[in-house]
Design brief:
The protein is an alpha/beta fold. Helix content is about 40%, strand content about 10%.
Length: about 200
């Protein structure tokens, strides 16, 4: 497959922030007197910030105004960012570093395509701020995943057609060392395709 760039998701690829999300949501829910556990938290995976808040508030006996909801969302995000502060460059695995280096040596264009509005902060914490040729995040899009808007935006920022870039949305454990010196292999499985070689 001839491809000129690779667009990576962030969470679940370079790092995992699930536990931080859970802790921040649970803290907010407990403050509001709303029951919240890990099973409930699983319903929020891949859901936007305000949608996830609405799901939490479904269990509340009270009705809240849009202004109150906006304040709750900001409070949860502040708690979450506090927890993100624990992340360090050492959290990146050797396989991640090896694959990124190999792709760079091959001259591929590299981008992040993440729905998270905290993408710049996370990249800074793990030492990847400024590494990628383009970063498209939740601050630039109208539709969260699974809509492909953020990945299409990243391709546009790279100056590539969607058909010329791989969308790498594999879990952290799927990282492999380059299959041979100077060559980084894209994911070997393609469960389904959005456009061209974009991979989900």
């Amino acid at each position: 497959m001839n491809y000129q760039g690779v667009i990576f998701d962030l969470d679940g690829v370079f790092c995992s922030t699930d536990e931080y999300h859970y802790q921040a949501r649970k803290t907010l829910a407990e403050k509001l007197g709303i029951p919240f556990d890990r099973e409930r938290n699983n319903l929020l995976c891949g859901v936007s910030r305000m949608q996830s808040l609405e799901i939490i508030l479904e269990k509340s006996e009270k009705t809240y105004t849009d202004e109150e909801k906006a304040a709750f969302a900001e409070e949860k995000n502040a708690l979450y960012r506090q927890l993100l502060g624990q992340m360090r460059p050492a959290d990146l695995s050797d396989d991640v570093k090896s694959a990124l280096s190999a792709l760079r040596r091959e001259g591929r264009k590299l981008a992040i395509g993440s729905s998270s509005k905290n993408t710049p902060f996370i990249l800074e914490r793990v030492g990847l701020n400024g590494f990628f040729d383009a970063v498209a995040d939740g601050n630039m899009i109208a539709h969260s995943k699974p809509h492909p808007e953020v990945f299409l935006k990243a391709a546009e920022m790279l100056g590539l057609s969607p058909q010329a870039a791989w969308w790498w949305r594999m879990p952290t454990r799927a990282w492999k060392r380059p299959s041979r010196a100077g060559s980084a292999a894209p994911p070997s499985t393609t469960p389904r395709t959005i456009q061209g070689p974009f991979i989900i």
